[in-house]
Design a protein that fits this description.
The protein is α+β, with helices and mostly antiparallel strands and 617 residues long. The protein is built from 24 helices and 22 strands. The chain binds a DNA duplex (11 and 14 nucleotides) through helix 13, strand 10, helix 19 and helix 23.
Length: 617
DNA sequence: ACCTGTACGTA
DNA sequence: CGTACGTACAGGTT
C-alpha cells in the first residue's frame, strides 16, 4: 500500500490558535486558512504547495487504495476530510503509535521522537507566522516555511519506518478507526434538546440559590462555605487529605459528615448543604454548553486518545470527554447524541468483562465456570455472605455481592469496603460495621484464593523487574525489566520502577519522568511525584489492559462491516442505516460474545440495544 | 498564564 | 493498599 505523508501549515494568531481552542473549533472556524501543505509519496521527495487551491493540488492523487500518514492525524486528517473530502483506505498516525511503545518516557511531540530515534532535528519555525495570512508571506518567508514543513514530513515518514516494525497490524486498524471517529463524524447533535436542557439546569440552580441566604460564591468557595455553616451554628466537618496529609474541609458529596447535614434538625442547614451539593457539580451545564456550540458548527467529531491510559485504555480528548457523560442521574446529554437521518445508534457493552478477566487470568476456575454457565455471580457471592440464597430480587444483598466481586478482587481492605458500601450506588447504600466488613473481606479472600495468589505473583514480578530479572505470571504474561508483556505484544510499563522501604513506586507522568532523568544525568536534586504500585494494583492494571485488548480486537472486527462511532471502555457504539440496524446489532453482539484468540476459554457476554439516540440505547 | 489540590463525571 | 481517566473550579504563584 502506498503511504502518503502529509503535514499542513495553517493560519493562527494570538487568540485563534490550537492553544486556546479545540481542534474541532479551530478547523471549523471562519479564520481557518491553509498556508501550505507538504506531501511525500512513499520515500519520494517531499512536495510543497502553498497556492490558493490546495484541494486541486491534493486531489491529483487517488487515496482510495493508499494510507495517509501524519503526526497527530486527527488534525491533518480532519482538514483533508472536512475541507477536501479526502478519505484514504487507511489513516496512520505516529503520535498514536508512540504512546504504547514509549509510555511516558519520550513524549508525544515529533521533536522529542525524532531526537530519540536519531532521525534529525525538527526545525524551529523561523518564520514569524503568527497573525500572517498566506498572501502576506514574502517569497523568502514562504520558502523558509516550506523547508520547515518538508523537514517535518520527512521526519514523520522516517519515524513511521522506525515504529512500524514494533507495531501489530491489528492495532494499526484500531488507530485508523480512532482517527475516523474524528475525521468522519456521524453523530448528530439535537440543538433544541440541548438548549432546553441548559435552560432547565440553569433554572434548577437558580431555585437552589434562591432557597438560601448566601450567594453562589459562598457555596463554591470552601472557606466561604465553612463561614456560612458556622453562621448557622454548625461546626464545618474536616478530614485528613489522603494526598497531602493535611487537614482539609470534608465538603464532598462522598463525605459522610457532609451528607449527614442533609438531615440536620435546622432546615436552613439542610437547604444550605443541599444548595452547595447541587451547585458544586457544573459538569452538566458546561458540557451542555460545549455541545450546543459544536452543534452550531455541525456534527460531532469524536476525539479519543488511542492509548490514553498506561493500561491501554482510550481516554477522552479535545475538551469533550465522551467517556464520562453523565448517565446515572440524567440522560439528557446522551439523548442529544443522535443517529444521522434514516440511521440507528447501536450500543453493546461487554458484561462484567473485568470480573471475568480477573477470574480467568488468576485461574480462579470455579468463578470462571460460574460465568461460563451464565450464573449470577453477584447473587452467588452474596449468598455466601448472608448464609442464605440471594437472588436478583434481593436488591440490597445483591448490591453487596456485586461490590465484593468488583472491588475486593484488587485488594480492597475492610474499611474502604465498608465506606464503598455506605457511599452506595444507584440509590442503594448499605451500612455495616467494621467487624462485618472484615468478615466479608476474609470470606472473599478465602473463597477466591487464586486471585489472592495472583496479587502475590504480581508482587514477585515487581521485585524481579526492579532487579532486572524476567519471568512469567502463571505462564500467561511474561515480564522483564521493561514491563509486563500483553497478548498483543505491548507492555504495561512502569517507568523508573524502584523498591521502597515498604513497597514499590514508579513515575506515571511524562514531564515528571523527564525531569527525573535530567536530574539523574546532571546530578541535580529532584522532587517529583512517585506513584505507588503493589501486587493488587498490578492485578488491576493487567485486567484493565486485557479488557482494553479484548475491546480493541472487537472494534477492529466490527469495523470491517460497520461504522464504529466511538467506544467507552467496555462498550462499542455503532451507527448503521435503518435497514441494516438489526443485522448490525446481531453482528455486534456476535463479535462481542466471541472470546479472543489468546483466551479461547474466557467466557464473554454482552448486552445490546438500538435507538435513534445514544441515551435510549 | 500556569500550577496544585479537590471534587466529580464515566468505565 | 480497588484502578484508569479528563475537566472545572478555587486559590495560589510566577
Amino acid at each position: 500500500m502506498d503511504v502518503v505523508t502529509i503535514d499542513f501549515e495553517t493560519y493562527y494568531d494570538k487568540d485563534y490558535s490550537l492553544k486556546k481552542m479545540t481542534t474541532e473549533a479551530y478547523i471549523r472556524n471562519p479564520l481557518f486558512e491553509v498556508i501550505g501543505v507538504g506531501v511525500k509519496i512513499n520515500d519520494g521527495p517531499t512536495d510543497w504547495y502553498s497556492g490558493s487551491n490546495p484541494k486541486s493540488f491534493l486531489s491529483s492523487f487517488d487515496y482510495s487504495k493508499a494510507a495517509i500518514l501524519c503526526h497527530n492525524t486527527a488534525f491533518d486528517g480532519a482538514i483533508l476530510s472536512w475541507k477536501y473530502g479526502i478519505k484514504p483506505r487507511l489513516w496512520l498516525d505516529t503520535l498514536s503509535m508512540a504512546r504504547p511503545l514509549h509510555s511516558v518516557t519520550v513524549g508525544g511531540s515529533l521533536a522529542a521522537l525524532a531526537t530519540y530515534y536519531n532521525l534529525g532535528k525538527k526545525g524551529d519555525e523561523v518564520v514569524a507566522a503568527q497573525g500572517k495570512r498566506r498572501e502576506e508571506f514574502t517569497d523568502e518567508e514562504m520558502e523558509r516555511y516550506a523547508r520547515y514543513c518538508i523537514n517535518d514530513v520527512d521526519l514523520t515518514y522516517a519515524l513511521f519506518q522506525k515504529l512500524k516494525n514494533k507495531f501489530p497490524v491489528k492495532e494499526l486498524v484500531v488507530i485508523d478507526q480512532t482517527i475516523r471517529m474524528f475525521t468522519e463524524p456521524c453523530i448528530q447533535l439535537d440543538t433544541p434538546l440541548l438548549e432546553k436542557h441548559l435552560n432547565d439546569i440553569s433554572t434548577r440552580k437558580q431555585e437552589l440559590l434562591a432557597s438560601v441566604s448566601v450567594d453562589r460564591n459562598s457555596l463554591m468557595s470552601n472557606d466561604m462555605f465553612a463561614v456560612a455553616l458556622q453562621s448557622l451554628g454548625v461546626v464545618p466537618p474536616t478530614k485528613i487529605s489522603p494526598r497531602t496529609g493535611q487537614e482539609t474541609w470534608a465538603f464532598a458529596k462522598t463525605d459522610k459528615a457532609m451528607t449527614d447535614l442533609l438531615n440536620h434538625p435546622d432546615e436552613r442547614v439542610q437547604a444550605l448543604v443541599s444548595a452547595r451539593l447541587g451547585t458544586k457539580s457544573t459538569i452538566e451545564e458546561t458540557r451542555t454548553k460545549a455541545f450546543i456550540e459544536i452543534s452550531q458548527r455541525g456534527s460531532l467529531p469524536i476525539m479519543l486518545n488511542y492509548y490514553g491510559a498506561h493500561t491501554g485504555r482510550f481516554s477522552g480528548g479535545d475538551k469533550i470527554n465522551l467517556q464520562n457523560l453523565p448517565s446515572r442521574g440524567n440522560n439528557k446529554i446522551r439523548q442529544a447524541l443522535k443517529a444521522p437521518q434514516y440511521s440507528k445508534i447501536i450500543a453493546c457493552d461487554s458484561a462484567q468483562i473485568e470480573a471475568r478477566l480477573v477470574a480467568w487470568v488468576a485461574g480462579q476456575e470455579d468463578l470462571v465456570q460460574a460465568f461460563r454457565e451464565k450464573r449470577d455471580v453477584y447473587s452467588e457471592f452474596a449468598s455466601e455472605v448472608y448464609g442464605r440464597t440471594i437472588t436478583k430480587a434481593d436488591k440490597i444483598e445483591r448490591f453487596v455481592g456485586k461490590t465484593c466481586v468488583l472491588g475486593l478482587g484488587y485488594g480492597m481492605g475492610a474499611e474502604k469496603f465498608r465506606r464503598t458500601l455506605e457511599i452506595g450506588q444507584a440509590g442503594i447504600s448499605v451500612k455495616i460495621d467494621l467487624n462485618e466488613a472484615e468478615r466479608i473481606v476474609r470470606l472473599y479472600r478465602q473463597k477466591n484464593w487464586k486471585i489472592v495468589e495472583f496479587w502475590n505473583l504480581c508482587g514477585y514480578a515487581l521485585t524481579a523487574m526492579t532487579q532486572g530479572g524476567s519471568g512469567s505470571i502463571r505462564g500467561i504474561l511474561k515480564y522483564d525489566a521493561d514491563g509486563i508483556v500483553l497478548p498483543n505484544g505491548f507492555r504495561i510499563q512502569y517507568a523508573a520502577l524502584r523498591a521502597t522501604s515498604n513497597g514499590f513506586e514508579y513515575v506515571s507522568e511524562g514531564r515528571s519522568y523527564r525531569n527525573y532523568i535530567n536530574a539523574k544525568l546532571t546530578g541535580q536534586p529532584h522532587s517529583i511525584a512517585w506513584t505507588k504500585i503493589y501486587g493488587g494494583k498490578v492485578t488491576e492494571n493487567i485486567v484493565q489492559a486485557l479488557a482494553a485488548i479484548v475491546i480493541r480486537e472487537q472494534m477492529a472486527a466490527v469495523g470491517k462491516k460497520y461504522k464504529v462511532a466511538f467506544q467507552v471502555h467496555d462498550e462499542i457504539i455503532v451507527v448503521a442505516g435503518n435497514a441494516d440496524a438489526d443485522h448490525a446489532e446481531r453482528y455486534l453482539t456476535e463479535v462481542m460474545s466471541t472470546p479472543p484468540q489468546w483466551a479461547p476459554d474466557l467466557p464473554v457476554a454482552c448486552e445490546s440495544g438500538q435507538a435513534d439516540n445514544y441515551g435510549d440505547t
